[in-house]
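User: Quick one: structure for sequence A, then sequence B.

Assistant: Sequence A:
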Amino acid sequence: MKKEKNIDYLESRDKQLWFLTLLLFLLIAAFLFLLTLQYTSLFGEPIENKYFYAFTLLILLFIVYLINNQTHIKKLRKQIEEEKKKTDALKEQSIRENLLSLGTKNHFEDCLAMEFRRSQISSAPFSVLVVAVKNLAEIDKKYGFGKGNELICDVTRSLRNFLSEGNSLFRYSNQIYTSILPETDKDKMTTLTKKINDTLSKIRTEDGELLEISINSASFPADAESLHDLRKKLFEPFCNEAVE
């Protein structure tokens, strides 16, 4: 939107410059014509039509130049708009790919159950991270779903910077995102959660509005004795009703 406004502003300024330049040229032409008229009157030489034709030709050439310049600017604007459309299309494709790469809620539940059983057998701890963008609905309403998706991509990219290659991200709901971290105990998870919170708290909208980020985490076996207790500790702060 800002780029389009800049293009409109430059085009408007060019039209103003076009008008002022033409006016200045006509004034100079009139001045030279009067000066020539005075010269011929002083020296008694006849006024020839060639002076008039010369000035007319110069004016026509200058007008042609200005029209050509304006046409070039319009072509340039069209090229810029086409490039912007291509850029927006690539951005939308990148956003879709990023969002589609996130696991679903059902996939998360399956992975959580598998990791819980593995942890029980191996006695190895694991942790779960839950990130909620609480004002995402307001952002979608204010800026549109496209901008909301861009911000979600910023959040998920930031999260991936803290996660190991084998740690998947899941879209549990429109506003809630999760990740399972094997071999991560409560102390490591507490440190990691603080770093993630510090990073996500810096993400802003194009108007400088901060995202309302809420982060929760839980570790097994430190925070829960069963899968039900673990899920309850993770999600109950974000739900109006208890987790079944």
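Sequence B:
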Amino acid sequence: MPIRSLLSHKEFSYANKSEHRLVVNYEGVISLLNAAMAQFKKYGCFRMYRKGIIEKAEVYYQSGDLTHALQLWVAVVRDGIPPAIRKDILQKAISAAYCMASMKDYLWCCVQLMPSQPLAEQGFRAVLHSTVPPPPFAASEVTAAQHLRVVE
């Protein structure tokens, strides 16, 4: 074998190994968060328990399970949290509801966000007028593949 093909084979092998190392084990992360949340609940650390719920929702969102993420975010927001955290979570929840086409959750998030964001009010009015609401996220966050998927 020539040296060049050996080097390319080694490079491919290293690239393949590093790619497998960087894959996130979402199920493992969720099980660890569940164990941590059980301990927080057992010892009465309710702020940390709530933080665990938020982190768990983030993991569900990153894994593509928008339904579970949205359920957890809505539960946390209804619990009563500080306004700065609430706005951030509601922004993520409205994006998840929009992507899932969950009208009930989208409208609920719009109503919650109305005092602080005019875009939420525009989305609410669009639904009342039976038109498609504008996306609750910036256009720069939408990839070309996602844009093509919507057009088709």
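Residues 3-151 form a domain with the Serine Threonine Protein Phosphatase 5, Tetratricopeptide repeat fold (CATH 1.25.40). The longest helix spans residues 3-21.

User: Thanks, that's what I needed.
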